[in-house]
Amino acid sequence: MKLILTAAVDNLGAPGEIVEVKDGYGRNYLLPRGLAIVATRGAEKQIQGIQRAQEARAVRDLDHAKELRTQLDQLTGVAVKVATSDEGKLFGSVKAADIADAIVAANGPALDKRIIDLPKGLVKKTGNYQVKVQLHPEVEAKVNFAVEGK
């Protein structure tokens, strides 16, 4: 059975890889758990598009990570707009994807939301906050952002 992995599977492959597995393993384990999808021409094209987007956001090496850290350190005007009460309390929550979008809106680099370390419960009101961005195992940047009401 030919499948495309949607998540990393030990001893099999990484997301986006096309693998050949026994029918029972694919039908009874990988497909029901959402770890893979059946490989069709349409699915292969979709995976290629996803991989291109991931490569564009990926940090390539240590030098690239240091370059991104420099860009993030010089970045100003990062603002996340959310619905708030009159006292400044948030109606929703601020997610790492919101911060990544705000960085791009402030003319910063496009980052993957998974490398932004946003502790749970950090943002409860409007104001200024700081998060860590793990660009590389050896390179970490800090991004200051403001949470503003709409």
TrEMBL record:
Which Pfam families does the protein's record reference?
Ribosomal_L9_C, Ribosomal_L9_N
What's this protein's family per the entry? Belongs to the bacterial ribosomal protein bL9 family.
**GO-annotated cellular components:** ribosome
> What domain of life does the UniProt record list for this protein's source?
Bacteria
Alphabetically list the UniProt keywords.
Ribonucleoprotein, Ribosomal protein, RNA-binding, rRNA-binding
Please state what the protein is called.
Answer: Large ribosomal subunit protein bL9
Ribosomal protein L9 domain segment(s) = 13-40
- State the NCBIfam families in the record: L9
The record's listing under SUPFAM superfamilies reads: L9 N-domain-like (SSF55658), Ribosomal protein L9 C-domain (SSF55653)
Q: Which InterPro entries match?
A: Ribosomal_bL9, Ribosomal_bL9/RNase_H1_N, Ribosomal_bL9_bac/chp, Ribosomal_bL9_C, Ribosomal_bL9_C_sf, Ribosomal_bL9_N, Ribosomal_bL9_N_sf
Q: Quick check: keyword Ribosomal protein in the entry?
A: yes
This chain's function reads: Binds to the 23S rRNA.
